[in-house]
Amino acid sequence: MSRLSLRERARGYAPGQRLPLGGYLRSMAAYAALSGALAGAVRASGRPLPERYGAGDVLLLSVATHKLSRLLTKESVTSPLRAPFARYTGPAGHAELHEQVRTDGGPTRHAVGELVTCPFCMAVWVATGLAGGLVLAPRATRLAATVLTLVAASDFLQLAYAAAQRAADGDPGR
């Protein structure tokens, strides 16, 4: 078997594309390390893993994961966290931004840029943290998840209210 460099493998995997496979590998390693640290913390705490999570916790953490993932990856207030890895390109809806991943600075910067601008990608990390938090600090995690869920419900109501106002005024809006 030949020893191809990661760059050569990337070219063979996706000809004509600039996929940061090395950055993806480092991101996966970081996720594995954080997951391992979380598992170690759970083990050290002596807390047992639940047989299963209740439906209420699953729903609560699902909505909280959605909201925190969007907050971290799209909202204007968290743009300073994304700025080293992305460039602002314009608004993307209510209180959200559209950003372009930076491709300068190497594959790690590129891969992190994809992570911090993608709510679907970020959701894996957020869900892992919340699920681990439910084992290590259930009361604090439920409190934080409840706040995020309330904000998500408020967002939905704000948008529904604005749509209802536009409909009442005869303005189909956007």
In terms of topology, how is this protein built?
Blueprint: H1 6-13, H2 21-45, H3 55-73, H4 79-82, E1 86-91, E2 97-101, H5 107-116, H6 119-136, H7 138-168
- Poorly predicted tracts of residues: none
Number of helices: 7
Largest sheet: 2 strands, antiparallel
Reading side by side through the largest sheet, how are the strands ordered?
1-2
Task: Describe this entry's structure for a reader.
With 174 residues, the chain is mostly helical. The protein has one domain. The protein contains seven helices and two strands; from the N terminus they run H-H-H-H-E-E-H-H-H. The protein has a two-stranded antiparallel sheet with strand order 1-2. A hairpin with a 5-residue loop joins strand 1 and strand 2 (97-101). Helix 2 (21-45) packs across helix 5 (107-116), helix 3 (55-73) packs across helix 6 (119-136) and helix 3 (55-73) crosses helix 7 (138-168). 18% of the residues are buried. The mean pLDDT is 92.
Question: What characteristics describe this protein?
Answer:
mainly alpha, 7 helices, two-stranded antiparallel sheet, 2 strands, flat, 174 residues
How do you describe this structure in short?
With 174 residues, the protein is mostly helical. Helix content is 66%, strand content 6%.
